[in-house]
Amino acid sequence: MKRHPLLRRRFLAGAAGLLSSAVLLTGCGTGPAATPPAPAGDASGEITFWSSLAGMDKVAEKFNASQDKIKVTFETIPNGGNGGYAKLSTAITAGNGPDVSTIEYAQLPQFVSNGQVLPLDGFIDKANTVDKLNEQIRGLVQFDGKSYGLPYDAAPMVMWYRKDLLDRAGVGVPKTWTEFETAGRKLKAVAPKSYLASFYPNEPTLMAALAWQGGAKWFGTEGDSWKLGLRDEATKKVSDFWQRMIDQKIVKVEQAFSDEWSADLANGTLAGVLGANWSATGIQKRTEASGQKGKWIAAEAPNWGTPAGAFYGGSSFNVTKSSKNPAAAAKFIEFLATSPEAIAARGNTGSAYLAYPGLTKEAQKAFDAGYFGNDIYAVFDKAYATILPGWQWGPNWDVTNTALKDSFGALTTGGKIDAALDSSAEATLSGLTQNGLSVKE
Amino acid sequence: MARKTSTMSGTGGRTAALFLTPFFAVFALAIIAPVVYSLVLSFYAQQKSGLGFGEAKTSFVGLENYLQVFQSETFTGGLGRLALYCLIYIPSMVGGAVVFALLLDATAARARKLFQLLVFLPHAVPGVIAALIWAYLYTPGVSPLVQALQSGGIQLNFLDAHLVLPSVVNIAVWEWTGYNVIILFTALQAVPREILEAARVDGAGEIRTALSIKFPLILPALSVIMLFTIIGTLQLFTEPSIIAKATASVTSTWVPNLWAYDAAFNRHNLNQAAAASIVIALLAAGLSLAVTRLSSRMNKS
Description:
Number of helices of chain B: 14
CATH architecture of chain B: Orthogonal Bundle
Oligomer: heterodimer
Mean pLDDT of chain A: 88
CATH class of the largest domain in chain A: Alpha Beta
Order of helices and strands of chain B: HHEEHHHHHHHHHHHH
Structural class of chain B: mainly alpha
Number of domains of chain A: 2
Distance between the termini of chain A: 40 Å
Shape of chain B: globular
Number of helices of chain A: 17
CATH topology of chain B: MetI-like fold
Largest sheet of chain A: 4 strands, antiparallel
Largest interface: A-B, 46 and 40 residues
Radius of gyration of chain A: 23 Å
Number of strands of chain A: 16
């Protein structure tokens, strides 16, 4: 009985929100696209923005110069692998986090689950942001019908090959994983010491992408419980395949981005890199000095018979719980994620592939893809078009991620991918249950 | 002011209080408060329910966090690994330090200042940098060390699951031997020269003097070193966390401190992390007590 007035107030507030967004809608519909978005009430003041993405300082500067109501202070933080999320999470809990954060899709659910990021509904112009997104990418920032961030990049998994080495072995670009295996064998016949790709113990998100592409669903919900799928049929198929690749030495187990990996790329030990659109700069940096210009090509990752893709990486922008000015923060996020100016301001920061329609061509302008032997963006487009729908990240990817990393560590001394998935599933189960969540397998 | 003269006359109490207050203020703020806070945290748990979206409830759970810490195979495994680490590290580091110090103190030693500097130099390198340098030296494909061994026909992967522990021990030995040599060397300098002369008159050679006279006389310094080393070992964190970037053999829960970090920042279970930290602190306190007891007994006899 007592709750009625409150409920009504909430309903009224909601209605008011709807009304104001309707006003916004019409405002945007009639005005020319280039004019700054309609003012959203009191969206002004000073906000802070944390990101580990290169060039974001320039984007913040551009935003500050473009208007005079909101002033953004930018701060570079380490990336997730180097403790960026630990820093962000503790700062938000302590109440001195930034207003705007950068969180990868895999980690977003845990920030949502910990109540550390705010839903953007009511702050953003939904029709011109979230609603315009591709369904697969939208699903990665929406929980329980609310949007907890705006997607920045949509990173399709792609495979990079040394075309010259494939030619020498007399194989074409593998279309399926079966062809991949054959190509690997032929490559080894010509150059016994080379590998067609690497398996990265330190990149469980790639294992997830491979499973995703194979039709697995590692996380899902069933009523009021989480459903884990680290040991589902599709994952088994994928892990058996990669185990076979490792056993035949077609694939080398090594840390991604390590000195060892860099050396293998530079000296031609590796004929391929399983990565994403963003791998381009990394490959170029590591192989440029050894005269591999024009030898690298991008290709859709091999599939299991029918074209299928997955995302490997990508970040979203979010308003944190510690923000004192969510309205201004949301305004800035809209600029970050949907404005061509923001992309242009960032300059050349690699071969970005962006979630918001029409932005990728802006990123493409800044990136010189001349190092590569084919039209890499055409490949990204194809890979992006085949992303399998229905993948969801779990409530605490960090648990699964570290468990996988730890158990993949044994791969070089006789460990198996199967066993690693097994122990990681157990670790995830106990980690989540200890936090009180309901989990099934 | 009149007060000034009264303190000048040295009544002790108030002056002492004046000087001690800043220390105790900072000590309470930076040491006692966090410990009390951790202690409180360790008895509570943040419990979510269902899918976990929404507010978590904080409830008193008694010793359950401690139970989870001890039941965790990775935590006890980490303790075991730490024990093994000590078993390799302490004899090699302390042994090395004693030998170096005795050599430096030997009357026949030449260019003593230069060697002192050379031995101490690694300690001047910050731990993080040392770990990075060694990570480079251990990585196959880039390390000149691995390459040299390979050309000599020795295939070693310092970073695989079998060798990574000795490899981490080696970093610590490299870092800390020099530091402890200086402490022991100072203790050796304090050995009364007349005793050494008496030994020489009695016909003891350099080695005999070192073993029968000098070594027993630096035992107190040695026990201090042991104490610091054991506490330092329990704090092992930097080196493995840096090496973990170069190899997957160092897991996220490799040693107890990493376990606590993992609990706090990967599993988002601050309460469990607090419990683990308290356990580590208690272990350090217990071991310190044991070492001081043991060494005081040894010194008496």
